Amino acid sequence: MQKWTVRTVLSWARLYFEKRGIDTPRLDAEVLLAHALDCTRIDLYLDMDRPLVQEELSRFRALIRRRSEREPVAYITGEKEFFGKKFAVSRHVLIPRPESEILVEQAIDLVPMSSEILEIGAGSGAVIISILDERPDIKAVACDISIPALSLAAHNARVHNVTGRLRLFAGDLFGALSRKFSTIVANPPYIALVEKDILTPEVLRFEPKEALFAGKTGMDIILKIIHKSPDYILQGGYLIMEFGYSQKDNVEKAITGVGSLLINKWVKDLSGKERVVVAQRM
Predict the structure, then answer these.
(1) Which of 15, 19, 1, 9 is nearest to 59 (CA)?
(2) Count of domains in the chain?
(3) Cβ atoms of 132 and 138 closer than 8 Å
(4) Which of 13, 142, 189, 239 could form a disulfide with 214 if both were Cys (CB 3.0 to 4.6 A apart)?
(5) Residue 44 falls within a domain, yes or no?
(6) Average pLDDT over residues 151-162
(7) Does residue 278 have a pLDDT over 60?
(8) Is residue 153 one of the residues assigned to a domain?
(9) How many whole angstroms separate alpha carbon 84 and alpha carbon 87?
(10) Does residue 52 fall inside a structural domain?
(11) CA separation for the pair 205, 207 (Å, rounded)
């Protein structure tokens, strides 16, 4: 009978994932094995020849099966690291992406002292909670149309001790608001319906459609935010918004057409693409 150790099961899982077209086979195998064993990836390397008992092998095989069906690792483990912190995630929310950390970085730098900000589309709460964690002087309001997403955001707020400075509410964009904020942060749906076929199975089959797609061009929600946000931003305040790879020209045209917003800057992601716009309320 073959003796299964940390080393041998990782080697087997990597090859298994490679055959099924998984993009990061070794990394995924390590993360899932660490999850199955309730340890860290570093712990795996410190004890590579440790034998696995049958119960551990069964747990790992179950995780491998889910990943081979292209379920994202974050949904399998129930968590995702973002801006140096771990956040609970589920299939009710988008998995936080590295490019969305730009929103956090810009807000940390630009939000006025002791002010209140708004996030449109809270999801897991990763963005707004990270901002609050770095800026203990500010408060925030965040909305989402999904009740399960808001429940998850509330859980993450408790874990990261920002509940006292964050108010969550169910709403579609600005519908339930009656006051202005120093800054609005938004990562809206921006994928065009015609781009559906180029998405990975992980995204298309598992992530919430309402958080991904925004009409034929992907601009439906972005345009609503641009046109309505001036009514909810204090003079001199900011709109900080993420958008898609090919949408800069359309975003620029829309903001230019709104007389009370002035583009402050464009921020590039790690691949050199403009992904975030900062516009100031005049």
Answers:
(1) 9
(2) 2
(3) yes
(4) 189
(5) yes
(6) 98
(7) yes
(8) yes
(9) 10
(10) yes
(11) 6
Q: Are residues 52 and 149 in the same domain?
A: no
126 shares its domain with 16: no
CA–CA distance, 214 with 93 (Å, rounded to integer):
16
CA distances to 39, 90, 206, 243 from 201, in Å: 28, 16, 8, 21
Residue 148 included in any domain: yes
Helix, coil or strand: residue 166: strand
Q: Is the pLDDT of residue 1 over 60?
A: no
Report d(CA 176, CA 178) in Å as an integer: 7
Q: What is the pLDDT at residue 176? A: 76
Token pair, residue 277, equals 């716009």
Q: Which tokens belong to 271?
A: 């691949």
Which CATH number belongs to the domain containing residue 132 in this structure? 3.40.50.150
Residue written as tokens 């590579």?
48
With a cut of 70, say whether residue 151 has pLDDT above it.
Answer: yes
Cβ neighbours for 215, distance < 8 A, ≥ 6 positions apart: 192, 193
SS3 call for 139: strand
The parent domain of residue 34 ranges over 6-69
If asked whether residues 188 and 247 sit together in one domain, one would say yes
Kindly report, residue by residue over 70-87, the tens digit of the pLDDT.
999 999 999 999 999 999
